[in-house]
Amino acid sequence: MALLACGYRNSSDRMVILRCVGPEEFFLERVVFPFELLSFQCPPQSEVKIWTHGLGGPELVETIQTEELLIEPAASTGPLEALPGSGQHQADADPEDDLGLWAIAG
How far apart are CA 24 and CA 100, in angstroms? Predict the structure, then answer.
């Protein structure tokens, strides 16, 4: 089962409880403190409910689809390429002297 990388920031000044329910009996429950960022993984089509505790007991604050909480993957840089001339060693460099190679590399 592929999992989605999600993040939720508690922007309130009160502690909340995040409950994520997904397919195949997936369940995640975490306490999120004020201004804390919680990163978590969950299956697609999961639903996140944010709860707090009020005077009358537990209160549902909001319901969020996980698609709204996706963390953008880092931009792929692709394969690394050597710079021109970076694979060439200076003839006067001593192969036994690692420090000399670092000094030549700049």
Answer: 58
Please name the residues in contact with 100: beta carbons below 8 A apart, sequence gap of 6 or more.
93, 94
Contact between 38 and 66 (Cβ < 8 Å): no
CB 7 within 8 Å of CB 38:
yes
Amino acid identity, residue 65? Q
CB 31 within 8 A of CB 17: yes
Tell me if 33 sits within 8 A of 15, measured CB to CB. yes
Determine contact, residues 66/20, Cβ cutoff 8 Å.
yes
- Express each pLDDT in 2-48 by its tens digit: 899 999 999 999 999 999 999 999 999 999 999 999 999 999 999 99
Instruction: Report the chain's C-alpha Rg in angstroms.
Output: 25
